[in-house]
Amino acid sequence: MAGETILIVEDVPESLKFTASVLRREGYRVSIASTAEQALSTLRFLQPQLILVDFMLPGMNGLELTARIKQDARLQKSVVVALTAYTTPADEDRARQAGCDGYLTKPIEARALVARVRDYLDYGAEAPGAYATGPASAPEASADKGMIPGLPDNELAELRDSFLKGGKGLSRQLLASIEAQFDAARASQTVHQWIGSAGLLGFPTIAQRAREVETVLRSPSCTAARLRGPVTSLARAFHNPAGALSESSSQSVARVLHGKRVALIGLNGEGADLMCGALEQVGAKARLFEASQSPYAEAVGICHLVVVHVRPENRVCRWLAKDAPGLPALPTIFFGSPEHLLSLNSQVQARASGVLMEGCLPEEVLMRLRHAVTQTPSTLARVAAADAGELVIAYADAASHPLLEAKMKEHGLRCRVAANGPETILLLRHLRPPAAVVDVSLDGFEALAAIRAEAMPVRTVFVTSQSHEDEILRGFSLGAEDYLVQPFSALELVARLKRLLG
In this structure, which CATH number among 3.40.50.1970, 3.40.50.2000, 3.30.1250.10, 3.40.50.2300 belongs to the domain 5-136? Predict the structure, then answer.
């Protein structure tokens, strides 16, 4: 039991509590501070051997705090180490100039943190790899809560649950704000905090996704379009922290798409990269065509399905024209932003076998393409009747109901909201709506089964918090025609319903 004194300066409660507990279990005397000002007050009577300082603090930041510490003659023997999610050489240079004796990069697994702290206490600024990037946590170790030292299992479980619950709500708000008033500074601070907390608490996928968002936020070319994909991935990671598709599911998708030829019509650089990269993973063959390419060309006709990029630059594309009779009978996916998809003529919208949103993940691309290519000709030929009746919406997040209703009303759709599973089925039987949205967490699969068993003329979109293929395929097997993975934007839901309703 070493007994040295350590001061931790960190403003994220979960990270602060967890780090302090890990080090106390190693026998260190640990003091904590959540702001630089609080740390300076503590240092008036405390002379710690080691001070761990986060860069991003409210008020005075960690680098300013470090400079103040190094100016205090009483603290000349204290080793100051930056513990931060910032990773670039420029960030390390800033830490050196401020006076930091070392630099640890978040996320860092608990055992690695303990080992590095011991090195800094033994060797100070001469510690091996004093300015090396902190070791990443091994997923198999981090995922096992019992293998993370520091807290009793019940306290650790509470911290993890609190982190996930808070992250689900905040990431959903962050995603929604991209389409409204986006506060980049606040988003950057929040995401920076998540990188460290997720790493310590054993959520490597969340830490990785948060890092990807931070990279975009710090880029000079940061735009809403570039942010939407990484932020969506981050939000999904909070809902599914274990990761992406299982190996068996990935193999199932690959079996369907392997060797398929996919015509990519009018895709720009980022969209083309996304599609080509996803298709390459499963052995499918991408064929790139300009928007002006004739749909009747032999090179297009030999393809198994078509992806058309819906954007103003492609207005010459025949796939998007109102007067384009006799188009090849190929499954067709429209790819674009919700705004551009909704701008299409209703008859054009009805041609699509499915829609893909810009910024989606590769696994989302593959699932949508798989579903499109396995639809039967009769399914592709069916067009919903133009029925102006009320739609039924069953969605578990009650706080989102007013936003969903308002956005649907704005686009000419009327809806009735169901509060639970039994109410959903009652409304479906009573209203016989042209379309319905059912949440699997509100007995959505039971609702789909009832629609099928009673032959209700209802076109359905189901909502799931999982991107796993088995759950998605279960929804399709029960007759659903589209799906949404939480979190999603209200505009995306409108776009998908508009396509179904023709």
Answer: 3.40.50.2300
pLDDT less than 50: residues of the chain: 1, 134-150, 244-249, 377-388
- Annotate 341-402 with DSSP letters as a single string: HHTS-HHHHHH-SEEEETT--HHHHHHHHHHHHHS-HHHHH-------PPEEEE-S-GGGHH
Q: What is the pLDDT of residue 381?
A: 38
Cα angle vertex 166, ends 163, 169, to 5°?
Answer: 145
Q: For domain 247-381, which architecture applies?
A: 3-Layer(aba) Sandwich (3.40)
Check: CB of residue 125 under 8 Å from CB of residue 102. Answer: yes
Q: What is the pLDDT of residue 134?
A: 45
Residue-level pLDDT at 132: 57
**288, 272 contact by CB (below 8 A):** yes
Could you give the CA distance from residue 262 to residue 308 in angstroms, rounded to a whole number? 10
479: left (phi over 0), alpha (psi -120 to 50) or beta: left
Q: Give the pLDDT of residue 69.
A: 93
Strands 354-357 and 332-336: parallel
Which contiguous run of DSSP H or E holds residue 459?
strand 459-464
Contact 438, 447 (CB under 8 A): yes
What is the 3 state secondary structure string of 96-127? HHHCCCEEEECCCCHHHHHHHHHHHHHHHHHC
Q: Please report the pLDDT score of residue 65 as a whole number.
A: 93
- The CA distance from 492 to 494, in Å, is 5
The H or E element containing residue 264 is strand 261-265
Residues facing residue 287 across a β-bridge: 263
Contact call for residues 62 and 56 (beta carbons, < 8 A): yes
Residue 258 host element (H or E): none
Q: How far is CA 97 from CA 50, 52, 82, 91, 160, in A?
A: 18, 16, 12, 10, 35
The CA distance from 317 to 331, in Å, is 17
Measured at the CA of 494, the angle between CA 169 and CA 341, to 5 degrees, comes to: 115
